[in-house]
Design brief:
This protein has about 280 residues and is an alpha/beta fold. It is built from 12 helices and 8 strands. The chain has 2 domains: about 45 residues, no CATH class; about 200 residues, 3-Layer(aba) Sandwich (Rossmann fold), CATH 3.40.50.
């Protein structure tokens, strides 16, 4: 890899913030000094989402298709999600996790978010992709059995494309508490479906999710909730604010969800950035 950095024309990684972490933090796995030496040819280009695949207006897996202008139809997918996962009918929010059962993903915080949500009369669904058995996977299998009869929780161990689409469309909130995350496609997909992300500010998620209460960006650009540390109180600080907005100010929560849907994280902008890089190499 060091040789590749040395002899390449240009080096990219999948978000600007992850590029900074590689240069100035511990995100380079020992290659930070090399990257600093060649930082004039190093850039982070944010990944994009394929909106032909992840699009609630055309998604074939959804019982009800919708757009930012018809976001009220999202509630039909929420009902379908509850029916599919045998959850009781409820007036509360649905919080979701979609991703690998892996230490990188902050599974201790997912565990805490699950019980925190249930204690506040919410519902929690998880689709956890597990390729092998380890301590984390075994723990969530144990949780699945322990919570099997709970009408407000469903854990699906193993990834299924159709279920993932339904979770993105039917959930109100999506927790992504990763320890590190070079880009973070899950919150970008969630936003496309109007599902508000609750993320840890690491990697590309610091470039894409802007806190509803604390961001300095204009209100129309704010699209989620952000926390920074890796303990239970940190995720509570963000998740509690999200749940409070959902319950106390539903109209504002709907506007926040619509903000998420209007954000453009397609391949249009990063595609142009890659073309610019190739043009730079060609002219140089």
């Amino acid at each position: 890899m060091k040789g590749g950095i040395l002899y390449s024309n240009f080096v990219t990684t999948v978000s600007p913030n992850h590029a900074d972490e590689a240069l100035y933090d511990d995100g380079a796995s020992g290659l930070g000094r090399t990257l600093k030496e060649y930082q004039d040819k190093f850039r982070g280009v944010l990944n994009g989402v394929d909106y032909d695949v992840w699009n609630p207006e055309t998604d074939p897996f959804l019982p009800a298709r919708y757009s930012a202008g018809r976001i009220e139809r999202k509630s039909e997918n929420k009902k379908a999600l509850r029916d599919r996962f045998w959850l009781r009918g409820s007036d509360g929010p649905v919080v979701a996790y979609v991703g690998r059962l892996d230490e990188q993903k902050g599974m201790h915080l997912v565990h805490h978010a699950l019980f925190y949500t249930l204690a506040r009369r919410g519902q929690f669904v998880l689709i956890g992709d597990a390729h092998y058995h380890d301590g984390i996977t075994d723990h969530f299998w144990h949780l699945k059995r322990y919570l099997n009869d709970n009408p407000d929780c469903h854990l699906e161990i193993g990834y299924r494309e159709d279920l993932a689409h339904l979770v993105y469309a039917g959930a109100d909130l999506l927790v992504v508490p990763s320890m590190f995350e070079p880009c973070g496609l899950v919150p970008l997909i969630g936003m496309r479906y109007g599902t508000v992300p609750v993320v840890r500010a690491t990697g590309g998620m610091a470039d894409t999710v802007f806190d509803y209460d604390q961001s300095g960006r204009p209100p129309a650009d704010r699209n989620g909730y952000v926390f920074h540390h890796t303990d239970n109180r940190a995720i509570e600080s963000a998740l509690s604010r999200a749940l409070r907005l959902w319950s106390a100010r539903p109209r504002e929560f709907g506007e926040l969800a619509a903000n998420c849907m209007r954000a453009d994280y397609s391949w249009a902008r990063p595609g142009q950035e890659y073309l610019d890089i190739y043009q730079h190499i060609r002219h140089k």
